[in-house]
Amino acid sequence: MKKPLIGMVAALVFAGATALAGAAPATAAPAAPVAQDAAESQTALTTRSSQVAAAVNFAGTVALSNCSGSLVRLPKSTASDPALILSNGHCLETGMPGPGEVVVNRSSSRTFSLLSSTGSKLGTVRATKVVYGTMTDTDVSIYQLNTSYASIQSQYGIAPLTIAATHPVQGTSIKVVSGYWKKIYSCSVDGFVYRLKEGDWTFKDSVRYTSSCNTIGGTSGSPVVDTATGQVVAVNNTGNEDGETCTVNNPCEVDQSGKVTVRKGINYAQETYGIPACFAAGNRLDLTLPGCALPRP
Q1: What is the pTM for the complete model shown?
Q2: Residue 270 parent element (H or E)
Q3: Distance CA 256, CA 17 (A)
Q4: CA pair distance 97, 92, nearest whole angstrom
Q5: Which of 111, 154, 180, 214 could potentially form a cystine with 218 if both were Cys, beta carbons 3.0 to 4.6 Å apart?
Q6: 137, 162, 187: which is the final residue of a domain?
């Protein structure tokens, strides 16, 4: 995986991280009006997709202490719902979940730096819990914040990114937006991997990037944004760094016949289209909903 930047990190990386963390916060953008009813609430949120499609930037992304992430909504979320943050399961503050381990509704007070369109820090938002986290079949963490989308938009002028509810398409132009490094990678969906094996973990139906998305440590959890729709279609999580076979930081591709392929220097993401089917009204996780295929505890 594009490992969290903790512990013994190279001095050069540490210097870069320190410089970014020390950037002065920007003045918040003019407050957007808060929706007055359900219809207006939905309109206020859905407008975000068309705005983002014109130019993908850092608005809606966040920086974690060791990873990247994004402020996200589901297709049916409303402005009054508690806001959600999307990142990787291996970025959880408690460490990487083991194979078969699923975290649900666990208390958390983790903080995230909310970024402006240019990547400057607007402020800090705080979680109340980890709604969902796993590295089984996928590599995802979803945090619930102690505030709503409407409050964030009113205070900072930032709207959430929408998680698409449809499978990504090969050849789609995408951008991987790292809030940790304040860097945007541009490439395309090269294809899909039946099984991506990395150490003890196995991910299903992963997105493989074309080579120009040469993501590095700290980009873990970055939203993968479809440039045509402005919606999140995957979450960045790993890449083969050294050409090794199926080891940590060197995932290998396994097809349906069991054939193993190693692609040194190629990076991957985990699809997110299955997430909306697991949430009921009010951004409430319900893994028993029809169509929800996320692993259960």
Answers
A1: 0.87
A2: strand 267-271
A3: 40
A4: 8
A5: 180
A6: 162
